[in-house]
């Protein structure tokens, strides 16, 4: 069993009070009946409030994104469901810089903070280890991997090799009406960027890219590109900063989102020259999302 890490996860996950993560409930979430067990409650009620919450200054990055079904006021939980929610919460925390590079995190302490046992946390961390985000520290927990510009540049290069030719081909074959259907996704990235919410932006960004590549009809391509995209989003934040926002600046997210709308405009206009310039520029820097 892992020993306690030197930093309590409550400090690293950016919460200013001592409530468990899952006590941050979405509006309208069903509450358990009075006297019901508190231990099982968090995983069912910590849905992320996304860009709307960020606009009010609320911290939403590490909250669980999907509420679980309930029976008689109590959550119906399967281990896989808990593990999946913990995994998504940890991924969001990585993007937001709330899990700091070089720090070791204990599964039992994170589990206590999430309101779950250490087992689903450990399982989620093992998955993150397979994805290269953390590494196992025997008898202690998991250390967040320190990223560098070279690694991020390599990921950006691979993503460009995959995505740029596909987008250029789609620009010649997909009708304008199909591209217009992606407008809401592009606008979602703009809203998330404007709110300065890196976790919400990261998810919206990947959703837009998945939708674009999905028009190629190649599911394996979409999965591979999305995995690389997620890994590229786990950037090395400035220590003590706020993840992607600290590294790139809030304005950088807004500029990145603006590239989505500009690219979509060019695709709708069937302007292959502009599409080529925009899509290449979108992958032109190591930090490009």
UniProtKB/TrEMBL annotation:
Entry keyword annotation includes Ligase: no
Low complexity composition bias: residue spans: 25-35, 43-54
MF terms in GO: DNA binding; DNA-binding transcription factor activity
Keywords of this entry: DNA-binding, Transcription, Transcription regulation
Domain called HTH gntR-type: residue spans: 80-147
Coiled coil: none
SMART domains noted in UniProt: FCD, HTH_GNTR
Family annotation (InterPro entries): GntR_C, TF_FadR/GntR_C, Tscrpt_reg_HTH_GntR, WH-like_DNA-bd_sf, WH_DNA-bd_sf
Name under which the protein is recorded: GntR family transcriptional regulator
Organism: Streptomyces griseoaurantiacus M045
Highest classification ranks of the organism: Bacteria, Bacillati, Actinomycetota, Actinomycetes, Kitasatosporales
């Amino acid at each position: 069993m892992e020993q306690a890490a030197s930093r309590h996860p409550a400090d690293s996950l950016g919460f200013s009070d001592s409530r468990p993560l899952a006590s941050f409930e979405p509006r309208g979430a069903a509450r358990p009946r009075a006297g019901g067990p508190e231990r099982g409650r968090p995983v069912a009620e910590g849905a992320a409030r996304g860009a709307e919450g960020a606009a009010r200054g609320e911290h939403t990055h590490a909250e669980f994104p999907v509420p679980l079904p309930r029976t008689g006021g109590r959550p119906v939980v399967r281990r896989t469901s808990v593990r999946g929610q913990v995994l998504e919460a940890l991924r969001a925390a990585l993007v937001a810089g709330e899990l700091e590079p070089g720090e070791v995190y204990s599964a039992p302490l994170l589990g206590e903070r999430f309101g779950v046992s250490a087992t689903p946390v450990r399982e989620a961390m093992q998955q993150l280890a397979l994805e290269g985000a953390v590494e196992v520290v025997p008898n202690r927990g998991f250390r967040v991997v320190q990223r560098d510009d070279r690694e991020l540049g390599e990921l950006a290069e691979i993503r460009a090799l995959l995505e740029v030719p596909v987008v250029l081909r789609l620009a010649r074959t997909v009708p304008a009406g199909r591209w217009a259907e992606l407008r809401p996704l592009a606008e979602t990235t703009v809203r998330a960027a404007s709110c300065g919410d890196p976790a919400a932006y990261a998810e919206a960004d990947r959703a837009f890219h998945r939708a674009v590549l999905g028009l190629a009809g190649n599911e394996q391509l979409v999965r591979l590109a999305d995995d690389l995209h997620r890994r590229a989003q786990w950037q090395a934040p400035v220590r003590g900063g706020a993840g992607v926002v600290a590294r790139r600046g809030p304005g950088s997210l807004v500029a990145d989102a603006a590239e989505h709308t500009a690219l979509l405009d060019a695709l709708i206009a069937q302007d292959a020259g502009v599409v080529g310039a925009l899509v290449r520029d979108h992958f032109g820097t190591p930090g490009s999302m």
